[in-house]
Amino acid sequence: MSEDIIRFDKVEKRFGDLTVLNKLDFSVKRGEKVSIIGPSGSGKSTVLRILMTLEGIDGGSVTVDGEPLWHENSGDGSLKPASEKHLRKMRGKLGMVFQHFNLFPHMSVLRNITEAPVKVLGLSKAEARQRGEELLELVGLADQAQKFPSQLSGGQKQRVGIARALAMRPSILLFDEPTSALDPELVGEVLNVIGKLADEHDLTMLLVTHEMRFAREISDRVCFFDRGKIREEGTPEELFTDPSEDRTREFLSAVL
Ligand code: ADP
Ligand code: MG
């Protein structure tokens, strides 16, 4: 667990006059489970969206698996802007689970999971189906394969969202507040699945969450974001029981 699989170096991100990431330095090691906590608007989702190449950056650099996200090596050692091919390759390393599930409403549960592996990875329908059924089993939804998203509870939808992300065999899984749109009684079933994945040694996980107790249980490291920077980071033990920054203490006392 020594190599950085994700690395942000002095990353700047602005929307008009608003600086969202302010020379952010941030890295995650292969296999590490990292939680990001912090107030609304502090740039947490932006970090995940940049990794998914849903947003560009205004300065600094982002590397995934040792390769720059926005550039590629042109062969002579210099860097050129990323081609669509390079971006596709880099995106293939990551899967993302969204707050609002983002399932395809007109497709069955199983098809939601098999669509991208067939279209993007070129799996045969039979292979994708088999893998899809295994993943539904993993998230406890083997009996829901033929349903449509509208027939599922929020907790079930999110478990499909997790299975769909895993179907692309990412080495990094990103979660953006995966339980914050759920009724309280449905949160546990989703956290259970995420907790199961956290036991997978090889999978790198980056989780933005308000579930402090859960973050504490599953994370190797917790980062407190504040105004586009990491204000404080440490083991869950350090950060939750003995934060060194007043700002962290303030935030935690408001949410715990
Ligand atoms: P968090 O996830 O920590 O709540 P975000 O990363 O979503 O924060 O957003 C950080 C800031 O950037 C917020 O003030 C938000 O309003 C702003 N922001 C995010 N996306 C956009 C966008 N596409 N256009 C303009 N402002 C944005
Ligand atoms: Mg957010």
UniProtKB/TrEMBL annotation:
Location in or out of the cell: Cell membrane
MF GO annotations: ABC-type amino acid transporter activity; ATP binding; ATP hydrolysis activity
Domain of life: Bacteria
Cellular component, GO annotation: plasma membrane
Membrane-topology descriptor: Peripheral membrane protein
CDD domains: ABC_HisP_GlnQ
Protein name (Swiss-Prot/TrEMBL): Amino acid ABC transporter ATP-binding protein, PAAT family
Organism field: Devosia lucknowensis
